[in-house]
Amino acid sequence: MSDYKNELCKVESELSLLEVELQELLERQSSLVNRRAELKLILEQSELDNQQNQHIKWEGTDFPWTAELDNKLKSVFKLNELRSMQRQTMNATLAKEDCLLIMPTGGGKSLCFQLPAVISKGLTLVISPLVSLMEDQQMALELLKIPSAIFTSATSKEEAKHIQEDMVTTKGHLKLLYVTPEKLAKSKRFMNRLEKSYAVNHLTRIVIDEVHCCSQWGHDFRPDYKFLGILKRQFPNAPILGLTATATINVLEDVKKILNIPRALLFRASFNRPNLFYEVQEKPATQKDTMDKIFHLINKRFRGQSGIIYCFSRKDSEEVATDLKSRGIKAGCYHADMTAQSRSAVHRKWLSGDVQVVVATVAFGMGIDKPDVRFVIHHSISKSIENLYQESGRAGRDGQRSDCIVLYRLADVTRQSSMVFTEQTGLPNLYGIVQYCIDVAKCRRSLIARHFGEVWESAQCDKMCDHCDRAQCQVKVKDVTHYCKDLVSILDAAAATQQRVTSAKLLDAWYGRGPAGVKVKSIAAPSLAKDQAERILAQLLVEGYLREDFHFTAYSTICYIIPGPKAKLLRNGGVKVAIDFVQACDQSSKNTVKDGSAAPSSDTPHRVKHKNNSETSNVKVQKNKLNSKGTTSKSPVTRDPSSLLTNSKLATKKLMLDHHGGPAKPSETHSMTDIEFNFDDEDEGGSKERVRKVTSQSDILNSDHIIKTLPKGEANPASKRGHNDEDGVASKKLKLISKSSSDSEDDLKDSIVISEDDDFVP
C-alpha cells in the first residue's frame, strides 16, 4: 500500500510540473503569435507604403506649394530648415492624404500641421486631449501672429459666438481651431457647425494630436477618442493627420481601424533623442530624504536651470512643491484639481522663467513648447515605458544636453499598480517600466528602442545613459533560487494562517521582522541589502513567480502579494532563477559622477572618478555566500568605497566631527571631493574594513540609520546584535565608530568613520 502512495505522490508531483511547463509553453506560444502578427503588420505597412510612394516622393521639393511653404517657414516661423519627416508629412497632408506621424516628443510634430494651415485656405481643426497643451500652442501662435482659437467649456459666450460664426464663412480669419474630443462627443451644436463649415469647403483638414489615445491597447486610452471614428464618414474629403510620440505597431493598426483610415500613410521618425541622458536612481525610503535628494539635484546639478518634476498624485505634487518653496526653490504646482486660471498662471510663469520648476501630475506637459528644459525628474515611477518616454521627452527640445531621472522604489510600484490594474494593459505596461528600472547593465536607450520595435546598438547611446556612462563593469549572473523559494514559502505560510501580505510586510518577514504569524523561523534573513531584496521581489513579479492581488476598501485599493502562476516551479524545484549583478569594474575605465547622482544598486557598484579627477581605490568587503552545502561562507567582493556612501544611503546626511568629537571649525572643512580611505582589520578574521570619508559642513550625511557621535575609544551600541533602529531599519547595516588615537591629528579632523557588517552588502 505504501508503494502505491509513494507512486501516487510522484505522479501528482510530475503532473504539477507538467501543468506549469504547459503554462509556460502556452505563454511562449502566445508571445510568438503576437510577435508574428506584429511582423506581418510591419511588412504589410511597408508594402503599402512602397505602393503608395511608388509614384510620389513625399520628401520632394517640386510640389506646387513648396515655394510658399519654404517662404513661410522662414518669414513666419523663423526657421531655416525642416527636420526629419516634417516635409514628407506636410506634403502628404497638403495633397489631402490621410496620414499618421510618429515622431519623438520635441521632434516638431506641431509644425507639421501649423505650417500647412498657414499656407492653406480654410480652417484646420485640431483635436487635443489637454487644455494645457492647447493653451501652450496658442500662446506660441499668438507670438507668431497666426490667428487661432480654443473652444472649450471655459470659453465665454461672446467668444464662442465669434468662433462659430468664423467656422461657417469662407471669409473667416481663423487658421487653427483647438478643441477637445469631449467637445466633439458631447456638443451636437458644435458638430452641426462643423458640418456647415465642411459644406462650404472651409474645413481644410482634421488633426488628431496624441492619436494613440484612440486605442485601448495604447498607454493612455480615452473613451471620447472613440467618437472620432465618425469624422471620416461625416467629412470624407477632409484629410486626417494623426500625431503621436508613442505608439507600437499594434496600436497604429488599431488607430487606423477606429478612425476609418485603413490606407493612411505612415511617417515614422526614429525614437532616439540623442541629447537626453537617461538615468535611474534609488529613491530614499522617507519623504524627507527624498526631498533632500531632489533639492540637492536642483540646487547643485541643475542650479538655475528649468525643469519638471512629475509626481504620482495631486497630493504628492503639492507636498513636493511646498517643500521646494520652503528651501528657496521657485517651484509651481500643477494638477487637474486646480482652476484653469491657476494652471495657466503657473504655466506662463514657468515659460517666462519666473518659476524654475513645475511640480506636476501627468496633466501637465503634452505639447509644451519650452526649448530649454534641462531636467525631468520622476518623483515616482511612470505607469509605462510610453509615459516615461513622452514625459521625459519634454526636456531638451533645443537639442542641448538634458537629464531624465527616475527615482525608483518598490513601494511606488504597488501604488501605481493599484491605479492601473483595471486597465486592459495596465499591469503589463507597468511591469515593462519596472524592468527598465531594475536592470543593472543594459543600455537604457536600447531598452526603450526595443519596446518601440526599433533596434539601437549601445554604441549609438554615446554614453548618454547611466549604464553606458559609467565604467565598463562585469555583469555576473547569480542564482537566487533559494531566495525566491524563501519568499514563496513565507507567502504559503501566511496563506495557511489566512493572512494577507503586502510587499512591505513580505520583506519584513523575510528579514525576520513583523508579525509572528507571517515570519517563518526556518528561513534565515537574507545577506542582502534591502534594495537588492526589493529587486529580487520585483523581478519575481515581472516574471510571474509572484502576483499582485487587489482588494477594495471603502477609501482605497490595497495591493497584496500572493504566489503567481509560476510559483509551483519554485516549490517543486523545477526552475532556477538567476539575476544579473554587477561584479567588478574595469580599472582602466573612467567616469564622472555628477552632483546628486547615485551609484547603481548592484553587487558591486561601478568605479567612479570624482570632480578632482582622482580615482578612488577599491575596498574589499565581506559578503556571506551559500556554499554547496547550504551553509554560509565569507568571500571578499571588490567594492568601490564611495558606493558604501551612496548605495547605503549614507551620502546624504553629514556629520562634522573633530578628533575630540566636537564640531569642526569652518577653516578645517574639506570639499565633497576630498575623499580618503582607511583600511583596518579590526576583528580576528580581518573581516571588517573601514571607510573614512572627509566631508564638509554643507555636505551632511543623510541616513535611514542611527548614527551616534562617540567619545574616542567607546564601543558603538549600534553594533550590538538586536539593537533596534529608530526608523525600523536593521541596525546591523552600519555603525559609526571612532578612530584610534594612532591616527594623526590632521587625518581625524572633520571626519567620520563608517564600517559595514559582514552580512550587509550595500
From TrEMBL:
Residues 658-673 have a biased composition (Basic and acidic residues). Keywords: Acetylation, ATP-binding, Coiled coil, DNA-binding, Helicase, Hydrolase, Isomerase, Metal-binding, Nucleotide-binding, Nucleus, Phosphoprotein, Zinc. Residues 590-645, 658-762 are annotated as: Disordered. GO terms for cellular component: chromosome; cytoplasm; nucleus. Pfam families: DEAD (PF00270), Helicase_C (PF00271), RecQ_Zn_bind (PF16124). Its EC number is 5.6.2.4. Residues 614-645 have a biased composition (Polar residues). Residues 90-265 form the Helicase ATP-binding domain. Residues 15-54 form a coiled coil. The keyword Zinc applies. GO terms for molecular function: 3'-5' DNA helicase activity; ATP binding; DNA binding; four-way junction helicase activity; hydrolase activity; metal ion binding. It catalyses: ATP + H2O = ADP + phosphate + H(+); dATP + H2O = dADP + phosphate + H(+); Couples ATP hydrolysis with the unwinding of duplex DNA by translocating in the 3'-5' direction. Its cofactor is Mn(2+); Mg(2+); Zn(2+). It is found in: Nucleus. It comes from the Eukaryota. Residues 290-441 form the Helicase C-terminal domain. InterPro entries: DEAD/DEAH_box_helicase_dom (IPR011545), DNA_helicase_ATP-dep_RecQ (IPR004589), Helicase_ATP-bd (IPR014001), Helicase_C-like (IPR001650), P-loop_NTPase (IPR027417), RecQ_Zn-bd (IPR032284), WH-like_DNA-bd_sf (IPR036388). One of its GO terms (biological process) is double-strand break repair via homologous recombination. PANTHER family: ATP-DEPENDENT DNA HELICASE Q1, DNA HELICASE RECQ FAMILY MEMBER. Belongs to the helicase family. RecQ subfamily. This is ATP-dependent DNA helicase. It comes from Biomphalaria glabrata. The gene is LOC106072856.
